[in-house]
Amino acid sequence: MARNPISLAVHPVGQLGNRLLALFFAHHLSRLMPNAIVTGCEIEEFPVRFGQGPNPLYDGDREITLTGHDVDVPALLREVEQAGIERINLRGVFARVEYFGDRRDELRELIDFGAPSNFFDDDQLAIHVRSGPHLTPMHIHEDFTPAPLSFHEQIIAETGLKPVFIGQFDDHFYPRAIQARFPDAEFVSGGSPAEDFGRLMSARNIVASVSSYCWLASWFSRATRIHLPLLGFLNPIHRADCDLLPTADARYAFYEFPVIRWDASLEQQDLLTRQHVPMKHLAPAAVDALKVRAREGMRDPPLEVGSAKRA
């Protein structure tokens, strides 16, 4: 007897980058479940050429809900088959390149990003700035550590490219410090999320921020070099369940930092904007080894710097 279709119901969490990652995980599962029907794929910023409308109501008892990032997909497929699961609710972000990293061109066709932009020149270095409430002690999130200004300074010096800072330049200490530290740079702000996404996609050289939004715009871009700081959720020692470190992609340059769990303390603000934070370039093999080390669990606690919340 033929099995009834399985409902993959996407319930997007967070802002644009997180919502796109959830869609890509749904697409990954749909390739492994040929009888799956994917719903809930609409996003405000871009038309999506994937999915079948909003999530339908479900009043049965054969459903499961997936959250977070790391899913044991083979175990999930076994459970779906053995328990006769009818609906899978996707309420996570699923930020792991293993779910989509080999399908960049295919996924680009699923999202209508609009006409290609020619915003950045080839001799410019696009440096994304993520600002917002998470920079303040009232709304902190330890996974969103801003990049130290010494990192930007070093990449600008090494590349010799013209720096263009793009993103959020609201009235917080971080964007103010950037503008003061780099007075001769160009600053681009005020664009919508969709506009800035397209602008980043046009860049040949990108310095990424700790942001799933910037990560995806960079990944989809025409860039030949993407400088990726291993900070916040991009550091596997900080978040082993996340993995947005595509070591097989030759465009990426990876930079290791001490673990900085963001708490927006005055000490950390001073560290990021006034001090030199040590970093080192990691070869892809070293990044892979770091990921294995993080997954296995560290016997010794990681080095943490600039935190008012050390154990």
| SSE string, helices as H and strands as E | EHEEHEHEHEHEHEHEEHEH
Structural class by secondary-structure content: alpha/beta
The termini sit apart by: 57 Å
- Class of the largest domain in CATH? Alpha Beta
Low-confidence stretches: 298-311
Structure description:
This protein is of the alpha/beta class and 311 residues long. It folds into two domains: 6-110, no CATH class; 124-296, 3-Layer(aba) Sandwich (Rossmann fold). 30% of the residues lie in helices and 16% in strands. The protein is built from nine helices and eleven strands. The strands form two sheets. Strands 7-6-5-8-9-10-11 form a seven-stranded mixed β-sheet, sandwiched between helices. A four-stranded parallel β-sheet has the order 2-1-4-3, covered by helices on one side. Strand 5 (124-129), helix 4 (149-159) and strand 6 (162-167) form a beta-alpha-beta unit. The longest helix is centred in the first third of the chain and has 17 residues, at 16-32. The termini are far apart.
